[in-house]
Protein 1
Amino acid sequence: MIREVLRMGDPRLLQRSQEIQTFGTPELQALLTDMRDTMAHLNGAGLAAPQIGVGLRVVIFGVHANPRYPDVEEVPDTVLINPVLTPLGEEMEEGWEGCLSVPGMRGAVPRYKRLRYSGYDELGRHFEREVQDFHARVVQHEVDHLDGILYPMRIRDLSKFGFNEALFPGQALPEE
Ligand code: NI
């Protein structure tokens, strides 16, 4: 079911979400179905459970090249639960981000360039990956949602925050 995405200003987006304790349940499957439906409906690159008002540490993401976003770096479709992020090195990189909870806008956000992330899939199987660049950026953006952080809170130079049509006229841009 497509759910309403909460927008910046809603206090539920500012709370720390809780760990999933039990995997493989119908409730968790229903949550993931709703998250996938909602993300697909909005052509999103990622979605965190608190964005649909569910305060649990569950995120999904995935990006594929398509005519709308021909230049995008691909990211595999992933369900990540109770994530742990470990930066690999201290190198940070600024890059443009958008968010389904801040629709129509974009800001330049510093993120770790490389990191390891680990967590669980919906059946409770543990996995970890080492990633960099856009994949690393998407994971950091989504996991921030679980700690009540929205990307505008991380922008260092607010002159690099604005509306999509003004910053990037005529371009369709993915939001997370
Ligand atoms: Ni977001």
Protein 2
Amino acid sequence: MSNIGSYEQRVTDFSWDIAKEVLNWKDDELLNIGHMCSDRICDRGDGEKTALIWEGFGDKKATYTFNDLRVLSNGFAAKLQELGLEPGDRICIFMDKIPSLYFSFVGVLKMGGVAQPLFSAFGDDSLEVRLASAGTKAILTTQKHVKKVRKIIDNLPDLKHVIVVEGNPDKMRDGETFFDVETAEKFEDFECCKTSADSPSVLHYTSGTTGQPKGAQHAHNTVFGQILTSSWVLDLQDKDIYWCTADPGWVTGTSYGIIGPWALGITQCVLDSGFTSARWYKFMQDNKVTVWYSAPTAIRSLMRDGKELIEQHDLSSLRHLCSVGEPLNAEAVVWSEEVFGKPFLDTFWQTETGSMMVTNYPGMKVKPGSMGKPFPGITAAVLDLKTMEPLTEPGEVGLLAFRPGWPAMFREYRNQHDVYRSKFIGASDDATPDECRLNTDLWYASGDRASIDSDGYYWFVGRDDDVINTGGHLVGPFEIESALIEHEAIAEAAVVGKPDEVNMEVVKAFVTLNKGVDPDDMLELNIMNFIRKSLSPLAMPQEIEYMEKLPKTRSGKILRRYLRALEWGEDVGDLSTLENDD
Ligand code: 6R9
């Protein structure tokens, strides 16, 4: 049985308070995510249950119970307090996916701090911009990454504490603190900060097309949205072994790689080693993973490596697969049915939304290539680009928007109130962030384009700035890319508009090829024809460029705007999340 029961039945009598029922939550309880992910699970009698199964490079392995998580996160909370850090202080977590990343995240929240996780692969410039913007007070890092902090610390007057949680204590510099929580004194008891629904919790930086990265600030109330979606969409149940492949530098790695599952008391796995398909399959086999949450970029890599590898592993424990981050091509859904015996279910959401918005659920009919339907309690629409009114005809393309007010919604863009306000269609010029967030007459504009079919399923078209205007016709890159990867030679594809005197823009495709395929003129013609026949002459790429790999963000999204800017000779904007910019 899945957690959701009958989907239609739930929708009719929905209230977010159902999240509290799922948690067995009493209104006088302490609303602190750190407490809820550890102490509360122990209080309910699950202290000896495994919280974290961790594997690193080589043969490194470790397992921790919820009681270990409770005590080790206490250790971080107590240390931060001892150093003088206070509730509301931004505390950056800058390390690989080692166990201390997870313990310190929970610990920061316990002492009331704002957890600011950043990808450990960021170079010093990317790090500096985000620490300066956040006015970060302390950074938790490792000997491996502290060099980058040392380079920039003189430019960061607010950064008072550099805490190194792993490495050689003798290699520390003056002013740095070495703190290995596993060998330090154990803190059986720690009095958690009395945060409430509106207290700031996690600060995630997200890159925009222009300007500097934006800091999306969340509050402790997000947990109710995260647990309900974890329960109904990820379908997490008591005995599950759950693996979210995302790094906590990306919102998926915190909302669904820490908070939602642990607040439900679910056992999670973490693999901190580079990606290879074989390593991933072995990890799932060895740990008997039952629920797997991943991203299209990884799924396409697995597809490229073929099904023989899958047949060499026992993956019979897998019962439920979900995906997020980019449009999930129909081909990937069909492939996963074939090789795993179940489809990947697509989920759509954003750093700003904090929890899933449009999703497929267990028990719901999957239409390959569709994002599914709005989660219960979410009012979604596709708005006319001119009138900003909801479109009513099935298949019409417009702006994907949501009525504000769901629990996990972001509270502000740090220091950028105008940008926050600009995300709400209809907000008055002097509206405060709270007035925007709580006004259910407004629309929160996602920045994506989509359509809705006659069955109420949502179909992703592209980001606002990725849509191509060719001869007055708007063409979404996703549809063309999905068709391209159905071609037997193509592994991945990115489609952008390139300038054209007659048509304003024409379609250009960047593709990577499957193993063993060599490009030649015939292949190019063949691909063009393939698209012309399966879609339309308008969608047919006028040019195809072969690449070794596509430019992607650290969360695995294809950076079309980068390719587009190169075609147009324009400024490429903020590239700090480009995968290979170290
Ligand atoms: C969670 C996350 C948000 C943007 C979003 C959209 C794209 C995410 C998607 C998807 C199509 C899906 N996106 N999920 N596009 N189908 N299922 O990814 O947050 O990093 O802020 O990105 O990602 O463009 O607006 P974030």
